[in-house]
Amino acid sequence: MKxxxxxxxxxxxxxxxxxxALVLVILFSYTIYKxxxxxxxxxxxxxxxxxxxxxxxxxxxxxxxxxxxDYFLKKRGNKSLNEVxxxxxxxxxxxxxxxxxxxxxxxxxxxxxxxxxxxIKEIKEELEEIVDFLNNPSKYQKHKxxxxxxxxxxxxxxxxxxxxxxxxxxEAQVPFFYxxxxxxxxxxxGMGAKKxxxxxxSAKLNAPSIIFIDEIDAVGKARGGKSNDERESTLNELxxxxxxxxxxxxxxxxxxxxxxxxxxxxxxxxxxFDRRVYVGLPNIEDRKKILELYLKDVKYxxxxxxxxxxxxxxxxxxxxxxxNEALLSMIKNKKSILEESDIEIxxxxxxxxxxxQKILDIEQKxxxxxxxxxxAYISRxxxxxxxxxxxxxxxxxxxxxxxLENIKRELxxxxxLELIKNEKYSIGEDAIKRAYEIASLMxxxxxxxxxxxxxxxxxxxxxxxxxxxxxxxxxxLKELMLKNEVITLEDLQ
Length: 493
Ligand code: ADP
Description:
Organism: Aliarcobacter trophiarum LMG 25534
Protein name: Cell division protein FtsH
Structural class: alpha/beta
Number of helices: 22
Transmembrane segments: 12-30, 42-61
Radius of gyration: 32 Å
Order of helices and strands: HHHHEHHEHEHHEHHEHEHHHHHEHHHHEH
Number of domains: 4
Largest sheet: 6 strands, mixed
Bound molecules: adenosine-5'-diphosphate
Shape: elongated
EC number: 3.4.24.-
Strand order of the largest sheet: 1-3-4-5-2-6
Helix content: 55-70%
CATH topology of the largest domain: Rossmann fold
CATH architecture of the largest domain: 3-Layer(aba) Sandwich
Keywords: ATP-binding, Cell cycle, Cell division, Hydrolase, Membrane, Nucleotide-binding, Protease, Transmembrane, Transmembrane helix
CATH superfamily of the largest domain: P-loop containing nucleotide triphosphate hydrolases
């Protein structure tokens, strides 16, 4: 809109100039006509010449108005950070960067919306509230509702965290400020903090807007241990900035991390990143939707359901590479329809290529399914094939029995696998670590027992007993897990 206004003003000025020149010519001619006897030769010609020069200049300006307008807009754009050019940029191609020489923190306009994010329905629903807040702030302000300033997207790489953040900005039609955590960590002390300040200043200037900080752990790691002045001062500045702006300022900070456990507690406190959204590997339904999206404009004879089944463990980025490689093979073989053979070639490339993608074959998928099924059975909760972790009993004061139950939930997968397959597997190292951490708390902090190993052993024995007694039920659940990649509460009834 601002851009239109500028265009109109410049157009108006050109027209006025032309009109003034014409009026002057007429006036001058009239004066000469009326008093021709009093005008001396030379001054007559100078006057007429001057008027014609004026007329020619205005014609040239009119003809070159586009270039002149661009020149003035560029000048203005440099003065007030992207204010003018951003509007122009909004209507330009996907995600082009806005040119600003004054600040290196540049917003991009996101044309990506939730339509471009396939699957992960629950996550999109969670973020719709933020979009609505950015679109209709008064609806929330009226009831004095404060929305979170910070949303933390937690999940492994390549699952679409950046894409989701962009889609939120695109849905709300607000500027999107992208920065990676690593880019804040500079060599010189104070530079990172300055960059954080500039980022927030720019975002506030362009509010409503979204700041996205990718891999926030690079800057947000817990303080302490080996001191790193630069990182600490950057983190402190980030905390100060997050406290400094009001919830209704229209700036929402979205950050992404793979390792929430390493983040400084201060970042996770209320008023900072207090909303967390977990983005896991895509499940079978998600994978199907993602494949359908990628193959939208392609003719194919492949079975998408089968491909979704056989690509468990793939993240969205890997699925995109798979389709791309398959299309390359199709083109190479001069075909116009994508076939199963192209997919096979692409899979091989991914499996043995530089960026090795671990593909879960039928046997590996069964191992994972048994592992996750035992977790679901023991914790009596919904567990997906590709989920990490397990829900724990979460109370202020836990009893001995409840802590032991939490250890069992962590160990259910490994114990179940050993029981059913009669073999040990290299799976669940994080869960084992967590089980030992709980046991250590019980011994060292709460003095509930004497020996960690004893506690672990008693949890394992109890698990073996319980799983053995329900082995048929677990076999049934495992089949469901293989088919649906999830066990729901209804399945457990
Ligand atoms: P992350 O930020 O989690 O590392 P990205 O958002 O960078 O992941 O996504 C990696 C790639 O996968 C991008 O090319 C993105 O377009 C694609 N992608 C990720 N998730 C989805 C999805 N749900 N639907 C469609 N494409 C996706």
